[in-house]
Amino acid sequence: GAVVSQHPSWVICKSGTSVKIECRSLDFQATTMFWYRQFPKQSLMLMATSNEGSKATYEQGVEKDKFLINHASLTLSTLTVTSAHPEDSSFYICSARSGGSQPQHFGDGTRLSIL
Amino acid sequence: ELKVEQNPLFLSMQEEKNYTIYCNYSTTSDRLYWYRQDPGKSLESLFVLLSNGAVKQEGRLMASLDTKARLSTLHITAAVHDLSATYFCAVAPNTGNQFYFGTGTSLTVIP
Hints:
The structure holds two protein chains of two kinds. Chain A contains no helices and eleven strands.
């Protein structure tokens, strides 16, 4: 149980394009979803927290107009990196949980490479 | 600023040896989690610690939580090569919805 599916796994695209990453909870309802970014050999950095049906809460230093988050249902959240540039290249990981004290369940991550 | 620090950052140890990884945090929290990450992979949940004095064990790994000291430990007993990975602790403050990760400990077990 508690499976989180993230899509795509790896994407390479040219600078200036927008990239959408999907995060789905397959067998539970995720009241809260989280988006993280991880640079090589570093820890995970929380980018934003999203609750279904409301606007995402972004961490300090994360541009909300660049990283658009939509949490339209209890099983789906999307992260769109708009006008991506090489410095946005990173490993993006989503997670989801069903309740406040429940552990977060992580997707397999999306490796984003911007040329 | 909330800090979650792990010690050590890198650890290389021989098989069959024991060692402890420490996770210190700077906020009030009764919820601490341990995760494992293999290279190029996402995170795998290891332990969920939800109260002061909580101790959980799975195989060669044992985790504990001291909320008063704001300290969690991950103890490795008789290490084997399969345990080589990066281990993260994560803290959920008692207020708010966020989740903060430690710096990570990269463990290499040498045959």
